[in-house]
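Before a computer can learn anything about folding, someone has to put a protein's shape into writing. The three-dimensional part falls to structure tokens, numbers that each stand for a local backbone shape. The protein below has been through that process, and both of its lines are reproduced in full.
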Amino acid sequence: MSKLLTVFGATGKQGGSVVNYVLNDPTLSQLYKIRIITRDAKSAKAKQFQEGVEVVEGDMMDREFLEIALSGTNTVFIMTAPVWRPDGIGDEDGIAKTIAKVALDKGAEYIIFSTLPSIKDISGGIYSNVGLFDRKAEAERYIRNLPIKASFISAGFFMENFLSSHFFLSPRQAADGTWVMSSFMSPKTQLPFISSVQDTGKFAGTILAEPERYAGKTLGAGKLYAMEEIADIIARITGKNVLYQQIGVEDFRQTVPYGADTWVEGLRFMEELGYFGPDTKELLTASAKYVSGRLTTLEEFFHTHSFHS
């Protein structure tokens, strides 16, 4: 008998990747039936899943709706998106906690949560203004203390972010025609990147195939690239003159459209301690060995995608 996998965020990059991976995997598609939760079942992204999945429309902030939506669920994939407000990040951890608790109350047996490391904890409180990460980490702590088995996927920066003019590393064209990537970090600083659309499902699929093996574990999703290396890759693939430029912190603040303090603290942490902390390389190396399928490289991503112009 098939188990029911309920996916939050299915119309987004991560959740959509999970749904597509399971639907197209010969084994997992037989093991799991899929239910997706969406605010708008009539949206184009929701309609693409009409065949082969159950689509449930509602508000994931409504507990009564969640109790209905999670009925009969065996496994739930939880992905929550940050809500940027003038005073910081909204109640993202509260939403994730509510989903997890309702899932437990309705008899679910397993949770897969898209998490991030606690920058505040890893830095010993030095960097305490990165709610984008710390709220997910708080939700992870809560889930770990529930009497339910759970696994965690902690992703690096999304390659898809390069396609947005708001991403801090998106190349911007200078007056002389050169495309410039800029931040205050050293050109040698390494950050992990993952194609959220192509590869999130590979990590979730690995867990879904052997849930007992990965219970309690965190898989780090991404491959490390240095700032100058990224510029070289984009230049080589696109044929454009792309450079990485290290600028001052205050100049960097002017390039960030929102959450400048959060970006500065977060990137300082990553430059000094690593995206996931001191064990960043080890986590990514070990996780890559487990993951089902080969991960997309930046070279492959830019072969099929063009950054904004």
User: Anything to note?
Assistant: The chain is about 40% helix and 20% strand. Residues 37 and 56 are 5 Å apart (CA to CA).
